[in-house]
Amino acid sequence: MATKRPTALHDVAVVGAFNTRQARLLPDETSLSITLDAIRGALADAGLAPHDVNGVNVNVGLASNVTAFHMAHMLGGQPSWMGAARMGVPAVLEAASAIGAGLCDTVVLAAGQAGAYSEREKVAPWTRPQNEFVECWGLYTAAEFALIARRHMHLYGTKPEHLAEVAATIRNHGHINPDAVYYERGPFTPQDILDSRMVADPYHLLDCAMTSEGGAGLILTTVERARDLPGPHAYVLGGAMERMGPSYVMAPVWDRYGMVGRTSARKAFAMAGITPHDVDVCEFYDPFSFEIIRQFEAFEFCPQGEGGPFVMDGRIHLDGDFPVCTNGGTMSFSHAGLAQMLQKVIAGTDQVRGRMGPLQVPDVKVAMCTNGGAAALFAEVLLLGNEPA
Amino acid sequence: MTPDRMTDARPPIPLPTPTPLSEPYWDACRRGELVVQRCRACDEYVFIPQPVCTKCFSADLEWLPSSGRGTVYSYTVVWRPQLPAFDVPYVIAIVEMDEGWYTFTNIVGCPPDDVRVGMPVRVHFQPMSDDITLPMFKPA
């Protein structure tokens, strides 16, 4: 094993991780009620009470004005540190940095969304950037990501069958996850993906993330305090982020943005003192099927251009070398607000804790959790381990 | 191929609301000219409009005419419309302009299945309202 690059992130453990109920719609919930559920669940999972928390960051729905300040009050007015990073991997890295720097020692991160998307003749409002150089062309996220995938297919001969293998694999994981929105909705063959209706060529309906509602919560604390809490825990081995511009505004030119994530992956692997081949589960961000192929290239699991063949032959299945999106991802588990960003970290946490039930991969030592995408011009990487770094 | 949007009874497609920064671009489109910012300090083309060069951060930008010619860098044939106002299928593309800058657009003037990466295209100005003309592209 290579030398680890020292970082204060190594002082941090994930001691609580919880997903609320997830569904296409949660009509009896609000974004606030489901976020509070997520916080209760994460605290219970960690064996902690609200007054044990002294740092907080939340996202209460994509359009909410309930902030970490409100949540600090609801938690009893104790927190000494407020996070401001976007929920998901950046919020984890920010909170872990604050813990490592001694600004606080136990942080709750939570997000939830309910009641946001009902007008189904339009694509979801958060997928339609209201920009004068974007929306007039009929653009939305599926089309933006299709423009990245199409260029890769042109350059490297990547085929719709490669994309379909990714989507079928992720959806089959959700098919056997009792907590997934699309539990028992499969199994899927790659041909089923190709036979679903076209959305934005090359993306069929089943190549795309769903829309859903739900919440997610996470508790981080120091490795030292984690020793006194019921385990097992997940430990932060490394992480990094990069951003090349605003999401969904600039034309997603493959030559400029296709390898977004390479820099952050290299940083994260250097901190952890490992290489891509030490990763046991790949909880990669999966807004659209090709993005999994792209991340294997960007993170240097395989050479650029070879991601299509790389995902074939069972390599990304639960019993393969690099299982992806083991909870069913945003295509089958859930894709709610910003909770879904945090759910990549929860899936990685549960895999290294050995708590993934029917989806548990044997003997997981390292999980890689990511957010971002080439058409969104950003990437965020977190490496979790079953032992402290 | 392209319906006459000025007489269409459906809710309109979302048209640009020009800002002081983007007004020169949309004004030029209405006149039937395609223009783009270029940095006087480093010669970089800048699109979409910015207050500074995104390569060297200089604020010394000028508006120049574009050839209006380029090639399809990538494209997608869209079947699920962003809003009901869009007729499917429609083609969204990234065009690499001959000057080396990139723009989103719609490809019109040919069947969607005929669009290919690398296809030469030229700008086609499509009036959408009294104020807004969109720079679509057609096969060259």
Report on the architecture of this protein:
The complex is a heterodimer of chains A (389) and B (140). In chain A, the strands form two sheets. A nine-stranded mixed beta sheet of chain A has the order 3-2-4-7-1-8-11-10-9, sandwiched between helices. In chain A, strands 5-6 form a two-stranded antiparallel sheet. Helix content of chain A is 32%, strand content 17%. Chain A starts with 11 loop residues before the first strand and ends with a strand. Chain A has 389 residues and is α/β, with parallel strands linked by helices. Helices cover 6% and strands 36% of the residues of chain B. Chain A binds chain B through residues 121-123, 128, 130, 132-140, 142-143, 146-148, 150-151, 154, 197-203, 205, 249-254, and chain B through 13-19, 22, 48, 73-84, 86, 90, 92-94, 102-106, 117-118, 128, 132, 134.
Give keywords.
heterodimer; A: 389 residues; alpha/beta; two-stranded antiparallel ribbon; 13 helices; 11 strands; globular; B: 140 residues; mainly beta; five-stranded antiparallel sheet; three-stranded antiparallel sheet; 1 helix; 6% helix
How is the secondary structure organized here?
The complex is a heterodimer of chains A (389) and B (140).
Chain A: E1 12-19, H1 31-46, E2 55-60, H2 68-74, E3 81-82, H3 89-100, E4 106-113, H4 141-156, H5 160-175, H6 190-195, E5 198-200, E6 203-204, E7 214-222, H7 223-226, E8 234-243, H8 254-257, H9 262-272, E9 281-283, H10 290-298, H11 307-310, H12 329-333, H13 339-353, E10 366-373, E11 378-385
Parallel strand pairs in A: 2-3, 2-4, 9-10
Antiparallel strand pairs in A: 1-7, 1-8, 4-7, 5-6, 8-11, 10-11
Chain B: H1 23-31, E1 35-39, E2 45-46, E3 61-65, E4 69-78, E5 90-97, E6 102-106, E7 120-127, E8 133-139
Antiparallel strand pairs in B: 1-2, 1-3, 4-5, 4-7, 5-6, 7-8
